[in-house]
Amino acid sequence: MASYVRIVDAVNYRIGRVMMWGLFVMMGILLWSSISKTFFLPSLWTLEMAQFAMVTYYIMGGPYSIQLGSNVRMDLFYHNWSPHRKAWFDAFTVLLLIFYLGVLFYGGLGSTAYSLGYWGDEPVSYFIGLLTGTEEIGRLERSSTAWRPYIWPVKAIMVFGFFLMLLQAISEFFKDIARINGQEIGVSRA
User: Fold this and answer.
1) Which of 83, 61, 42 shows the shortest CA–CA distance to 182?
2) 132-136, 156-160, 184-188, range with the lowest pLDDT
3) CA separation (Å) from 145 to 16, 31, 150, 189?
């Protein structure tokens, strides 16, 4: 458990620190949008690209947010509880989070498979087929805007982010189990 927590926490920490700079990427895109609309012909790609950047920033920063405990929490009774009781409560609620993230991950796989031209009901077998060469990419989904970008890259980023959040939630569950047993597992940020 300790090795899993160290590895997952280290990966999500590094990705989260990189994603912090994504805000500036989004600001740059929106700044260019304002400049191009004011002084030049408006760019078709800027607002949709800013949305894609926001999705990337939000989804890829999610595991880091979970790791830091910066998620929103109803703190009516929680702050008065002992660390042991908090660990029990957190272990229970993180199981609900794991279920929710599992549903999001599976739905994201289906949506990404659809954006790659797959019309079936088994997205996992489709992606395995892509890896083994028994499946092919079909007609790629495009946005309905004037720019018409392909949708699969942002959907793939979302699926990857859901996967990382799922790994981080499992890591948090392991940390809660360790706290219940009177131990502490963590990651060194060196």
Assistant:
1) 83
2) 184-188
3) 31, 21, 11, 43
